[in-house]
Amino acid sequence: MGRGRLRIYLGAAPGVGKTYAMLAEAHRRSARGTDVVVAFVEDHGRAHTAAMTAGLEVVPRRGLTHRGAAFTEMDLDAVLARRPQVALVDELAHSNVPGCRNTKRWQDVEELLAAGIDVVSTVNIQHLESLGDVVEGITGVRQRETLPDEVVRRADQIELVDMSPQALRRRLAHGNVYAPEKIDASLANYFRPGNLTALRELALLWTADRVDEYLQKYRAEQGIQGTWQARERIVVGLTGGPEGATLIRRAARIAARGSGGELLAVHISRSDGLAGAGSGSSRALIEQRALVEGLGGSYHSVLGEDPAGGLLDFARGVNATQIVLGTSRRPAWQYVYGPGVGTTVTRAAGDIDVHIVTHEQAAKGRGRIPVRRVTDLGRTRAVAGWLIGLAGPPLLALVLTNVEGLGLSTDMLLFLSLTVCAALVGGLYPAVASALVGSSALNYYFAPPIHTFTISSPQNIMAVAIFTAVAIAVASVVDLAARRTHQAARSQTEAQTLGALAGTVLRGAPSGDGVLTALLEQVRETFQQESAAFLERADPVGPWQPVATAGPRPPERPETADVDVPVGDTLALALRGRVLPAEDRRLLGAFAAQAAVVLERRRLAGEAAAARREAEGNRIRTALLAAVSHDLRTPLAGIKASVSSLRSEDVEWDEEDEAELLAGIEAGADRLDHLINNLLDMSRLQTGTVTPLIQETDLDEVVPFALGGVPPEAVRLDVPETLPMIRADGGLLERALANLVENAVKYSPVGVRVLVKADALHPAGGRSRVELRIVDRGPGVPEDAKERIFAPFQRYGDAPRGAGVGLGLAVARGFVEAMDGTVTAEDTPGGGLTMVVTLPAVDRPPETGEPPEPLAPPEPGGGGGAGQADTGQADTGQADTGQAGAGPVRTDGAGPDGPAVNTAPS
């Protein structure tokens, strides 16, 4: 029994028609005689989607009870027992209710596939794990529920379900996505044209990358070497010469002509074992690499004895469509050494277009004769040298025996030339062999008596001996020169590689995040390795742990690697792929040392961040002292004055005056209580000592207690009793809500009540949660100040110094976030601000598959935006922010912090 096939309909946004497309595919397959069942499909109350399930067999769902609430989930066992050919499973990212065998629905799908059942499923782009932060940055909504990208990548088919933002908004406005009462709020929030356009682009790019992966895999499996011009990829060849910048900019312009074009710069080095600079200037290559990366391209160093062949191999490997090269800098006479890289690439490029770009350095010379092809001491040269050294003298002797009248001295010079040639090509040992074989041939064929190995003339004996000595000496000198040339080229290569290494480290983020991975990728490219890993252990005998890796199957221990370089007792750089020559380990050691420096810098950055947090704590403590010295003095002075007046024997106070003084004492004491509680709470938040007691809490029991500090007629309450229980600390939540509500009441116009409304949200891409909105019709807060109002000790707007210490909203957000919730500020349609408190629910209702739905605008007179950030106890004052026309922005926030009075609003 084989594994089933998975087909996924990937949606760019909620409501584009994923489920409808899946059901349409099911009808097509059923009409062809395929056994199709509906394992789980959620229509979300959409009539068109619900109608599509007609005519399809539906497997009954499994009922579950969790914490007193009833739910339904896909009955995995029933589907496995039914064993259809195809099962429809909606909402792949869904989390199952506790009590199911698997925690996630994609795990249920894995079981179906393992049983040989084909599955057709759906998922939205915002539910992919790797895109969570991106989607949150676009929409402002954090997807609590995601699935690993690999689950979708492994699908046999991925079909993108797309729709233009305008068409999707029309669908929403016509009531085809949400209920009518939710349309306006959805259009104004999640379904804004900009959000939908960004999500659409994200889905298209992700899908395009997956298609490119499939294409590369198919080409590799089929052994296809030719270029398929599915996407413009421009490869620019760099030599390190001054023309490189011109070539890069020209290639960038070509890549920019079409959407999705890629720019790749490559330098081919013929050095043995390294992918270094070779014939170019290391400084120029470093600058050109920075230019490529600045233009959005990528830089690659590739090892290759033949620059033209290496460039073509690289271009075909990345499926390049065009190659950009510069006109050769060699003068005409140097073409005796070969046709040049440009001509060779053009002839062998096949279906890859080659652009030869002119530049100012064309035909002005390269600064030296390109003799590396002659003096390189690779395996090919060694074999050729031995052939010349061993077979050359007999062949030359055979030729010279048929030529008369040259004389022994001429014959010796010819044999000496052959020895020099062997030295140039193969080095010392082939040249010595040529000298010995040549001297024997001279003795046998040309020194009388011929055809014997004896020499009758002393002069000839001396001549043959001198010939042998000179030949060996010349061979030694030529070999030494060749090796010195090779060593110089290698040193230049190492210098360029180290320069590029330093550039990679310096261009990294100060924290070092991502630099280690880039460094390991550079190691792989430079040394032609399969994978690389930087390993660490806590002590010299402890187990190794990977700090960063690059490539497939990275080594887990130095012992299992092909190459390892220790850095002290606790760090090691390990490579897998091939054994490196000894001379390469010196440069590899430099990479390992740099990796250790990057790791240390990252840790130092973490310590610096901790020090900054400590400094921020000191700043908070200093502000606390300032608040105690000023803001607490005013109510104390009022209390003392009232008490002194009551105790004075010089004045006769009537009952009305006495009651007024007592009321002043009580008000001052209440204010002191509020301020001190906020100061203590802020101190606890800053020191991280807030430890909420999370338990099941009923919101409609907490909210009335939080309203005890405001007049009952100032608030309109809309908290349904059917809301699910929430996970929260009742005391902390009450304090946070009291601050927010009192702040809203203070800045709401006279006679306009603040609306406190709660709703349950069940998004498919996140955990179920309860959203509480505190809405007023105050003057609101400018967009650029919506985050600043939550900072401690902020005084925006017209709050006077006696109005509080600016901690109310900071304390409220700190308490809610400690309970895994959020507090955000939004504009209220029609004016004002709305404070949105979101908390996780205990019981998760069935998935809706849609994003969180914003609250609809309140009715006229019903409240507005609880965004004014002052929860202090006094009047507001002028904003000292230096921003003209910004409007009143308030963040005083010394709201009610003590236990609320047990009085609910009427």
List unreliable stretches of 5+ residues. Answer: 271-281, 367-376, 798-805, 844-906
Helix content bin: 40-55%
Categorize the overall geometry.
Answer: elongated
Distance between the termini: 68 Å
Give the percentage of residues in beta strands: 5-15%
Outline the biggest β-sheet. 6 strands, parallel
What is the helix tally? 25
Radius of gyration: 40 Å
In short:
By secondary structure, this protein is α/β, with parallel strands linked by helices.
Structural description of this entry:
By secondary structure, the protein is α/β, with parallel strands linked by helices. Helix content is 45%, strand content 14%. The chain contains 25 helices and 24 strands. It has a 6-stranded parallel beta sheet, sandwiched between helices. Strand 4 and strand 5 (69-73) form a beta hairpin. The longest helix has 50 residues, at 458-507. The two termini are 68 Å apart. Residues 271-281, 367-376, 798-805 and 844-906 have low confidence and may be disordered.
